[in-house]
Amino acid sequence: MKHSIPVDQCGPRGAEMAAAVQACVHCGFCLPTCPTYQVMGEEMDSPRGRITLMKQVLEGRQPLETALPHIDACLGCLSCETACPSGVQYRDLISPFRAWAEPQRERSRMDRLRRWMLMNVLPYCWRMAMAVRLGLMARPFRKAMPKALAPMFDLLPQRMPRREPLRELYEAHGEKRARVALLTGCAQQVLAPEINAATIRVLQSQGVEVVVPRRQQCCGALAWHVGEEQRAVKAAKANVAAFPTDVDAILTNAAGCGSTLHEYPLIMGEGAKAFAGKVQDVAQYLDALGFRVPDKERKVTVVMQDACHLLHGQRVQSAPRRLLAKFPGVIIREVADPELCCGSAGSYNLEHPDVAAALGRRKAEALLAAQADVCVTGNIGCLMQLRAHLGVRLRVTHTMVLVDEYLRNLG
Ligand code: SF4
Ligand code: SF4
Predict the structure, then answer these.
(1) Predicted confidence (pLDDT) per residue in 59-73, tens digit
(2) Which of 88, 89, 90 has most ligand 2 atoms within 8 Å of CB, for mutation?
(3) Ligand lying closest to the C-alpha of residue 1
(4) What is the CATH number of the domain that holds 334?
(5) How confident is the model at residue 149 (pLDDT cuts 50, 70, 90)?
């Protein structure tokens, strides 16, 4: 698309935003794969519509306030990037645009309070743990709470999971094949600590030494995706400094975090390139390493739920399937419309509960139709969203938890 964006006046990522706009040829191939377009049915809530809106705002031809509802409604799932034949880097536009727009917009008091709570609670393990405990105590009285807080109660686990503190170093079992560092995530370590424990055990079993850097922080995804630029830059800098350089890879087991670590050069600049170059999802890493599987058989039918930030954000699709297919007795089933988001998308299900719930219900029905014993996913946000919508109808767990159970002959 031709544009007249004054790149120099659009903040530090003006050139990236303009390049994304320029690459779009307005063909509309991305529309059918956009979950918000499917639910809302409006051009302005499609990738093409949003690109046009952001272009016009950056050119000064459209007031920011009229575009914001449509920009805010974007999940950031990046399904449009996968579908786009012209290679539009939508991620180079949406998050930088939100960061550019944030200081110029007005928010209601309730909106500010909710954002403040999200930014000051979710990324900090002990605050998050305390909030979950308080939430579980308050859940019986949820009807008396402000309506805006209701979605937070829906996403709480049934009970507070028991959490073992993680050590800084886990030795490889048997001959050492590699040394990696693991990002353990913030909310994940509170809501589902078994994921990190399982990931570490699986890596050890494959001869991989695991470093868990003590000074690591939240990856900054939450802040970056909602335009809180300074918080995101701070998180990126802290993590680049906290992770050791003498490792073969920096691993994540949460797709949203992994995708954001890959975006560190966009967030904090060239200084993060070497760091981002080492980042891999754990399933992708184990698949490439050559996974050693026991010869015992365990019959289980698995339906795969690709997290958007794995499928679209990191283009990882076949690695988790190849990994699971190595286990004797594992049957893999696919879900209908696998490219569609489940509605989780970081804090989206808290900020846009209606759209998120519609997508969550749709995904839950599609997963049930696969008639599997268990659904696996590679992202804590999807896991919580799917558990909320599936309840007891289908078990939902992380890929690494299933692999760990298999290796330990559990379940
Ligand atoms: S990121 Fe997802 S929700 Fe946003 S425009 Fe692209 S496909 Fe639609
Ligand atoms: S598919 Fe790509 S080029 Fe076509 S409208 Fe969507 S973003 Fe633009």
Answers:
(1) 999 999 999 999 999
(2) 88
(3) 2
(4) 3.40.50.1860
(5) low
